[in-house]
């Protein structure tokens, strides 16, 4: 008896030592089985139709055979486990297996070996029974689903002329539905019916299936009244929205804090100006694409090394303006955040969004625009009218229209988006085809202005540019030597201690300065001088606002994408005649001097004249906080690119009996141009107001931008639709032997030497930019508010 008990003890101990990893395995199998059963049963019983539950989608995608196969494999694994347990239990005591471990396993801690084996057998039998029951449930539920849906596996592609692309899309789905997991997310499982359900209910290429549960089209309740936007009086919440983790974000937050009081005072002034006017609160997503890791985020590492900060200056000001105007903001600087806020389904971006877009407006850049297109599927085309693209140098219509750009050689890496040209928002108002967004410069109060005038050093010059590369091109030594004869030259070039920058010895380099220290340097200096690069940055306006004279080089010939590497590939043909065209054209002398740096006599004469000239700090209204708030407010209230209807197609033939409607235009009293007719009806919702319209005919080689500017006006592309009529040529006494509708960004125009007139066929190609020696263009011009070129006199 004692011997038997000893053998039993040894066998049990062996069994337990051997079974320890198997016990863990058994527990794992049991847990997995429980999760699988909950998932499968939950999906089968809770889902009402395909796509209502993620559990249903999983079951449908796996299919009944796959589900039963999983259960069968689980059962086989447990059976194999039992066989191995039986072998171990019948082992004889032929070895001294783990003798040294006997003291570590007291017998009284365990049940006899037979009892343990019975429990394992019971677990295996229960799992096997459950597998059989689940198999029956899956079979019955799938059968009932087929019976309930009727002809789920017998769907035929409908032939409906209203849906001409349906058959082709189904064919594509047959071959490619597994190319993106998003199709399975929406319930596609490889059957014809699932293709048609997806193409009719998620996308819109096929008609709704009659056997699907289609709820009666009940009249939708009126939408609840929208919350009204109220000017905010604190920027603390905005600083939280901007977030942390990047040097660029830290820079933007510092700028917002620095200008906070000016922003708040400007918001109060604009609120008083609007006199309590009702404004709907917009839900706005701000996605700064160039700061995402996926786009490279080249700016953040260069913030502390003198890299360009103009884009971050502008984004900080956009955020402050939108927030203070009282709108609801969401800020993202990563692709993951963008996908989450848009409602992008899992996958590779071929499917539409899971829900309607929750934002009224999206402000982004070209990088963000590309990311949205890649991940929104068909929803991008549906919602792109809500996008506003922050575009430093602008995108002209000829580059924006994909078909036209491809045919005429205007296609670049940045264009061809087929957006309304006004959806692109620029840093400076260099092309009226785009909307002028801008930024702000710090304003001075009376005390600060007087202090600056008294502390100016008349012989001090600061060089524009913080990177050492701007000093390297040859030819600068000559005009620097001339400047050094009259002024002490200061630089703010970034450098590392062990590698000082390559600047002339007579230049006093302060290194990279914080913004407030750079402002103090400008307040002392008499001259702020540019070396030709960077183009169109914010620093010259800051210098002029701090009482400096800005001296820049004239480019001859002008720089453009045709002759300069920097502009090559940018979606514009604009010719840049100087480093900062806005300062040259809209500010000018005495604050801005543009000279030929290759002409030593002209350059030296300009330096002498500047030293004799006294200037006060000057800042155009459109670059103040109030000016930017006013401009963005007007855009949000009036710009709507989602409901604009296209004009009717041009008539092919015209009966002599047909009478043209009376023209909305009339000849001006001096008979030089056309104006809005006093008898014509005015749409009170039209923006800009049509009363501001003037129609002028350009000279050859002159764009409408230049034609309007020469008359103290600005080109307004919104008004092109009123000019695009044959009758307008007659009113302007232009003889037309023929009139044709064509796609050309220069039309409407006339080729006078052959008396051929041309009208615009594609509204997206209406363009203020562009000229040709063959054509004289019809140009829509309007007035503008002093210091606010983006808005007409009655536009606010």
Which tags fit this structure?
transmembrane helix, globular, alpha/beta, 11% strand, 796 residues, membrane, seven-stranded mixed beta sheet, alpha-1,6-mannosylglycoprotein 6-beta-N-acetylglucosaminyltransferase activity, signal-anchor, 21 strands
How many strands, which pairing sense, and closed or not: the largest β-sheet?
8 strands, mixed
Number of strands: 21
Radius of gyration: 37 Å
Mean pLDDT: 83
Structural class per helix/strand content? alpha/beta
List the helices and strands and how they pair.
Elements: H1 2-46, H2 54-89, H3 113-149, H4 166-176, H5 181-185, H6 192-202, H7 236-242, H8 247-258, H9 260-274, E1 283-287, H10 310-324, E2 328-332, H11 335-342, E3 361-364, H12 366-376, H13 378-383, E4 387-390, H14 397-400, H15 402-408, E5 424-426, E6 435-436, H16 446-455, E7 460-464, H17 476-486, E8 488-491, E9 508-509, H18 515-524, E10 527-530, H19 539-545, E11 549-559, E12 576-578, H20 581-587, E13 592-595, H21 600-612, H22 625-638, E14 665-667, E15 674-676, E16 694-697, H23 704-709, E17 714-715, H24 720-723, H25 726-731, E18 738-742, E19 749-751, E20 756-760, E21 776-782
Parallel strand pairs: 1-2, 1-3, 3-4, 4-5, 5-6, 7-8, 7-10, 8-9, 10-11, 11-13, 18-20
Antiparallel strand pairs: 11-12, 14-15, 15-16, 16-21, 17-21, 19-20, 19-21
Helix pairs in contact: 1-2, 1-3, 2-3, 4-6, 8-10, 9-22, 10-22, 11-12, 17-21
Describe the structure.
The structure is a single chain. The chain is an alpha/beta fold and 796 residues long. The protein is built from 25 helices and 21 strands. Helix 1 (2-46) runs antiparallel to helix 2, helix 1 runs parallel beside helix 3 (113-149) and helix 11 crosses helix 12. It is found in: Golgi apparatus membrane. One of its GO terms (molecular function) is manganese ion binding. It is a single-pass type II membrane protein.
